[in-house]
Each structure stands twice: as C-alpha cells, then as structure tokens.
C-alpha cells in the first residue's frame, strides 16, 4: 500500500481493530474523551473470542463475577449472570448487551478485516487499509486483537483429499454442526480439546481422541447462579473490582503468601485439598508461588493432582496415558473440566497416543498415523493458536521507514510493556507480547487495565505533544524485555515448551509471551504514567 496512492475515505482520530472485550472498551473510552473513533471487526458481530470460539462446550475458566467490565455501575447492576462459569453463548450475549447499552455498534464496521496500517511520518498519521478497499487515516491506532485469535493448524499433508469435514475450534460455524452418530476425531487435548471432548462424547457414534501430551485437569464446580447467589455476588463487586487489579493473575483471589518450605507437609496437604474443593483456577492462582518456581514443590503438587485424576479413571491401562508426566503442574495452562476423564469409560471413546505414533497425514477417509488409519466423518482441530504475534502479524503493519512489525517479531519478540514498540509511533496494543495476558491474567482485568493506560496516555499526549506523537525509546524497550525475561526465567514455566513460549509454532522466536504478575505490571504502568511517561518520547 502506498500512502500517497491510497485514496483515504475518511479521517478520524483513532482506529480500533477488533470488537471483543478490549476493542469495545477502547471504543467506549476513546469516544468518551471526545475522539472521533472508527472500529473495524472481521466478524459479523461483537464478542471477539466469544464470537469466534463457538465450539461445543466452550466456556470461560474464570468466574463470571470477575469476567466482566468494572467501569460502569449500570452494567454491573443490570446484567444478571446465570452460571458461575458462563458458557460461550452467555458471554457473547453479555458483550452484545454492553455494545447495545453503550451504543457502540454505530461506530463499528463489521465484516471488515484490516489488512494493512502504514505510518505516514510527515503527516504523523496511520493510514489503515481494509479488505473492503477503504482506507482511513487516523492519529492513534489501537489494535485489540486478543492473544489467541490466529488459529494454528498442524500441516498434515493430504487435506485436499479428505472427503469429510475439518473444523478448527476457533472457526466453528455459527449454525453449528450435527455430530450425532458420526465418527469424530479430535486432535488436541488442552483447554479447548478437553471442553469439546467432554461435550460431544455422549452424542457422537465414535470418538477418537488424538492425544500428544496429557494435561493436568481440575474438575470445575459450576453451579447455576440463582437470585440469592447473584445478590451475594453483587455484594462482592465493590471489593472485587479493586482486588482483581492488584492480584497476581487478575482474579479475586491471590497467591498464598506463606513460604512453602516453612509450612509442614500435612498443612500443605490440607491447603491443597481446600483449594481443590474450590473447583476453579484458584488451585493454581492461590497456590504457593514456589509451585511454579521450585522443582520439589512442583513435584508434590503434581503428584497431588495426578492422584486426584487417577481416582477418576476407571480403566487402569488408560491411567498411564491420561496422567501427565512430561511437565509439572501449572507450567502449562491447566484446564478445568466437567467429566472429561469419565468419558473414557465409554466404549465408543478411544484414546490414540500420537506421541508414540504421530499423525502423519489426512487420507481420503480420515487420518493416519505411522501404524494405523482412522475412518472419520468429522475431524476437529483443537490445536490452538499462533498466540500474541499471530494476529497482529497478519496485518501488514509498517512503522517509521517502512519497518514491518511482523518482520521485527520474526527476529525477536520485543515490546515496551506490551503496549508500544519502538519504530511504531502512536501504535497502542492490547494483549500483545510481554504484557500479562491469557496465560497469566484473567483477560478482562488486564484488557481493561491496558485500555485505561492507553486512553490516559493518549489524553496526556494530546495535551502535551506538539505533534501528538509518542513511542518508547529503544533503551526502555530493551530494559522491559530484560526485566520480563528475568521474571520469566525465575520460573519453571520458561523451561516448559508450550504456546506460552511460542513453542507450538515452528520457527517462532521463543520468549514467554505473557508477563508474569498482573498486579506488579499495573504498578509499573502506573509508575511510568506518573513520571510523565518516562521511557517514552513525546513530540
Ligand atoms: P493449546 O493449549 O495450544 O493446545 C493445543 C493442543 O493441540 C495440544 O494438546 C497440542 O498437543 C495439540 N496439538 C497441536 N499440534 C498437534 C499435532 N501435530 N498432533 C497432535 N496434537 C497436536 O490450544 P487450546 O487448547 O486451544 O488452548 C489455548 C488457550 O486458549 C488456553 O491455554 C487458554 O488460555 C485459552 N482457552 C481458554 C479456555 C477457557 O477459559 N475455558 C478454553 C479454551 C482455551 P501438545 O500439547 O503436545 O503440543
């Protein structure tokens, strides 16, 4: 795209890309500051993750009471959550309610994908191009694309020959798909795969679960929220809306402050039992910090979880396969499940160990491994995402002197607090690499915090910069990367391959994508702002 050649259909102050949790809030905040804002959304509706991931069984692993916006008392008062852990449809309905209540749709162009955004240095503006052929010029560019939006699919050869249906979970058809009585294969047994498998197992004719790595899993306690429970939940809102922003991972609970080694073993066991009974990610996020830092502490907790899982598996020969042994508890994302392990009691559910015997290719009728072929009507790829960099990389974002964001991140994944990047003035990102996100934060908490920081920063720059341009210095960015790595490398997580490190995408530079410690991060962001955006150049 040449900036000169492009006919700009419209000038505005800010462009927001994406209409999920972050995008909707960014649109609302920036508009509230009097900016003329245009938002683009590739989908036909709002919701982001909750628009795209409509696979059977999709639901949050965060409690509804903290998986929401905090900025509006009216929204908090008017929306009535129905389940402790809402399913996809309920969360999507909530985001539609917010969009309607705040009258956001009028500024969102749906079914419109942003394809490119180029910085015009002379004009100090971004020129944003969409797949509809339109271009918009803006001062502030705010992509809110989510960390997990770009599906990752294994490159099994022969897909064109396969005569059945292949679906990635993040591209599930809106009209759904009838799986009753069908022979279905699910590739992937992490957070998504587990939800799909436990949900469809009872209706399909035969289910083949292609498992490469067994995962730890915690049984979810998910009661319906009745009126009395909802009132109790509402009574906790004033406290929660502060706690989530201070906590380690953006929840209404926090780490156990005690030193693991100073707590007697029996007391540790009692603590683990009590956390287990919560039936939530509290088992991870309220545990002792040493669990993710110290091999011995991690082994004890991993043994505890395996013991709990083993008690649920009826067929002993399956236990050895379903119990995770290749990584420690909490070093990869731990799913919550509702009857996952129990579905393997069903005679028509088959576990295929594709670590021992990897999938090699599609056939015209299914999948084949090195030693066997599987006849399948539907193949579900629960194979995850090119996280953090994937979706931003899909847009041709070029900063000063034509610098390509995608190419920069192919060399090294680096940002200043996940919010900006040197060479890309006035580009503000949410859920980008090196800010806390899905891995280590309850997303709505961190997205609201990041949007607030961005909006406050834009407000400041508008009032103080002649050209109204801001970008981080290379030194500040390098300093943040170094600090981020120091925190990451102190944990066992940095030693465990997973999407958290980008290890699931061949050739991706390895770095922990999420910053660890949402509360500390917020403090660091606030410090920068209070010091007049120290580390950033405003011109
Ligand atoms: P993921 O964690 O990246 O898991 C992908 C799965 O696909 C893994 O089991 C992986 O095996 C498997 N896989 C990939 N390539 C394969 C191949 N060639 N052969 C066999 N298996 C293969 O993706 P995800 O489950 O979609 O979850 C991603 C993240 O989304 C989660 O960590 C979470 O943050 C979020 N999420 C949240 C919720 C929720 O809140 N309830 C639900 C779903 C997802 P390996 O492990 O061996 O690589």
What does this structure look like?
The protein has helices at residues 21-32, 49-52, 73-78, 88-101, 191-200, 227-246, 265-276, 282-285, 295-310, 316-322, 390-394, 405-411, 443-464, 474-489, 518-530, and strands spanning 10-17, 37-40, 108-109, 114-120, 125-130, 135-143, 165-168, 183-187, 206-211, 218-219, 336-337, 349-353, 359-362, 366-369, 373-375, 378-381, 396-398, 470-472, 536-538. With 539 residues, the chain is of the alpha/beta class. It has a domain at 3-46 and 104-150 and 387-538: 3-Layer(bba) Sandwich (FAD/NAD(P)-binding domain), CATH 3.50.50. The strands form five sheets. A seven-stranded mixed beta sheet has the order 3-2-1-6-5-4-17. A five-stranded parallel beta sheet has the order 7-16-8-9-12, with helices on one face. Helix 5 (191-200) links the parallel strand 8 (183-187) and strand 9 (206-211). The radius of gyration is 23 Å and the shape is globular. The relative contact order is 0.14. Bound molecules: NADP nicotinamide-adenine-dinucleotide phosphate.
């Amino acid at each position: 795209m040449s900036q000169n050649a492009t006919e700009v259909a419209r000038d505005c102050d800010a462009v927001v890309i994406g209409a999920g949790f972050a995008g909707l809030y960014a649109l609302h905040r920036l508009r509230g500051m009097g900016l003329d804002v245009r938002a683009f959304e590739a989908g036909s509706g709002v919701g982001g993750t909750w628009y795209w991931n409509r696979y059977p069984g999709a639901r949050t692993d965060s409690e509804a009471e903290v998986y929401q916006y905090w900025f509006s008392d009216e929204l908090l008062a008017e929306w009535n959550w129905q389940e402790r852990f809402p399913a996809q449809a309920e969360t999507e309905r909530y985001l539609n309610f917010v969009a309607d209540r705040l009258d956001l749709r009028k500024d969102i162009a749906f079914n419109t994908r942003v394809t490119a955004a180029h910085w015009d240095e002379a004009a100090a503006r971004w020129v944003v191009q969409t797949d509809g052929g339109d271009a918009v010029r803006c001062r502030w560019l705010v992509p809110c694309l989510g960390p997990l939006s770009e599906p990752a699919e294994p490159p099994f050869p022969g897909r064109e020959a396969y005569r059945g249906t292949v679906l990635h979970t993040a591209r599930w058809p809106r009209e759904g798909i009838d799986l009753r009585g069908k022979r279905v294969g699910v590739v992937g047994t992490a957070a998504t795969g587990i939800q799909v498998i436990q949900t469809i197992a009872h209706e399909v004719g035969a289910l083949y679960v292609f498992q490469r790595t067994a995962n730890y899993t915690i049984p979810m306690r998910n009661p319906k929220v009745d009126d009395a429970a909802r009132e109790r939940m509402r009574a906790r809102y004033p406290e929660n809306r502060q706690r989530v922003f201070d906590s380690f991972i953006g929840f209404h609970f926090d780490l156990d402050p005690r030193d693991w080694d100073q707590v007697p073993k029996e007391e540790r066991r009692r603590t683990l039992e009590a956390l287990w009974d919560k039936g939530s990610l509290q088992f991870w996020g309220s545990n002792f910090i040493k669990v993710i830092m110290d091999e011995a502490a991690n082994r004890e907790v991993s043994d505890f979880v395996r013991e709990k899982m083993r008690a649920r598996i009826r067929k002993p020969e399956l236990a050895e396969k379903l119990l995770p042994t290749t990584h420690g508890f909490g070093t990869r994302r731990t799913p919550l499940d509702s009857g996952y392990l129990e579905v393997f009691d069903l005679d028509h559910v088959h576990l295929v160990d594709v670590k021992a015997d990897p999938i090699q290719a599609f056939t015209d009728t299914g999948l084949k491994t090195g030693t066997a072929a599987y006849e399948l009507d539907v193949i579900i790829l629960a194979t995850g995402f090119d996280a953090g960099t994937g979706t931003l990389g899909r847009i041709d974002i070029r900063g000063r002197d034509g610098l390509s964001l995608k190419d920069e991140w192919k060399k090294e994944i680096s940002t200043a607090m996940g919010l900006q990047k040197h060479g890309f003035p006035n580009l503000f990102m949410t859920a980008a690499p090196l800010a806390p996100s899905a891995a280590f934060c309850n997303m709505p908490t961190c997205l609201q915090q990041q949007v607030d920081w961005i909006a406050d920063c834009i407000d400041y720059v508008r009032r103080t910069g002649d050209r109204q341009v801001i970008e981080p210095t290379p030194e500040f960015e390098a300093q943040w990367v170094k600090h981020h790595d120091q925190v990451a490398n102190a944990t066992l997580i940095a030693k465990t391959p997973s999407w958290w490190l980008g290890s699931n995408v061949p050739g991706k530079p390895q770095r922990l994508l999420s910053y660890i410690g949402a509360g500390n991060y917020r403090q660091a962001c606030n410090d920068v702002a209070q010091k007049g955006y120290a580390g950033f150049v405003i011109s």
